[in-house]
Write a structure and sequence with these properties.
By secondary structure, the chain is an alpha/beta fold. The protein has a domain at 22-151 and 211-255: 3-Layer(aba) Sandwich (Rossmann fold). 27% of the residues lie in helices and 35% in strands. The chain contains seven helices and eleven strands. Strand 6 (161-167) and strand 7 (170-179) form a beta hairpin. Bound molecules: S-adenosylmethionine. The site of S-adenosylmethionine (SAM) has 19 residues, from helix 3.
Length: 259
């Protein structure tokens, strides 16, 4: 085993490269929630954006059902993976590298999605307002914003602990920490990556913040969303007993229609 390699400046470097290999088996609840909440809405959507798109999995799935898709992510490596995957699957996808706190789309869309608690990944609780302002600007009047979040209870019950995941040629140790009273959580991730006969070690840190449901609803309404609905996510996580009621919420908000 060699020494630790210097960490990349931005997180999601190694996460991006190995995201699908490591996390695809955990996606079922995310897809279940989308099917349940957006199932009736998707047939009416022509143009959409997946925000914090990661490797483009959701954007590609939506493109496959005939929706013209933008995909936005701040990580250059995630964007690269999303472009590569869309190309290799023959799916049209416009990937834009941008921060969710100040992104702009070339055209207004009918739907913005932001899945797998990506919205919790902003650096500060104050950033929710910025993200929602950008999402509202990106939507047509009457457009939808769909997202899921980790709540404080998730930081208390689900988050803490040490997790070991291994796949052929790669293994990671995730040490999770949280400070629920400050609505903060973070993961220290040590990667072990096989290169020929030797293994390289890399480190990445990922931060999350959270908000109360009341804060989210207030922020959505202040950003111009006049129809706001939420679902407790635990039924979508059946088979993951640690995700108890109150840990995660799925939100669907509709931007005010043009007068
Ligand atoms: C947990 S992953 C979720 C990815 C994807 N939504 C999915 O369902 O697999 C979080 C994603 O948020 C992105 N991200 C984190 N902070 C961001 C920011 N400020 N602006 C845009 N993307 C960001 C990361 O690069 C990463 O792809």
């Amino acid at each position: 085993m060699s020494n630790t390699a210097p960490s990349s400046r931005l997180p999601y470097r190694w996460l991006a490269e190995y995201y699908d290999v490591v996390f695809t088996p955990f996606r079922t609840p995310i897809v279940r929630a989308r099917d349940r909440v957006l199932g009736k809405i998707l047939p009416g959507i022509g143009l959409a954006c997946d925000l914090a798109c990661g490797t483009g999995t959701t954007a590609i799935e939506l493109a496959r059902i005939g929706i013209d898709m933008f995909a936005v992510d701040d990580s250059p490596e995630m964007c690269r993976q999303a472009r590569r995957k869309a190309k290799s699957e023959g799916v049209p996808l416009k990937v834009i590298r941008a921060d969710m706190r100040d992104f702009r789309l070339p055209r207004p869309v009918d739907l913005v999605t932001c899945e797998y608690d990506a919205i919790n990944h902003v650096p500060s609780r104050r950033d929710l307002k910025k993200v929602l302002a950008c999402v509202a600007r990106a939507l047509k009047p009457g457009g939808y914003f769909y997202f899921d979040v980790n709540n404080r209870l998730s930081f208390e019950l689900v988050w803490p602990g040490v997790f070991w995941i291994s796949r052929p040629g790669v293994a990671l140790v995730i040490r999770n920490f949280s400070d629920p009273p400050r609505d903060r959580a973070w993961s220290e991730i040590d990667w072990f990556i096989q290169r020929g006969a030797s293994w390289r070690r890399h480190h990445e840190r990922v931060n999350e913040v959270c908000w109360t449901p009341e804060e989210i609803e207030r922020a959505l309404r202040a950003a111009g969303f006049d129809s706001v609905h939420s679902w407790d996510a635990s039924p979508f996580f059946k088979g993951t007993p640690e995700v108890k009621p109150g840990c995660r919420t799925v939100w669907l908000a509709r931007l005010r229609d043009a007068d």
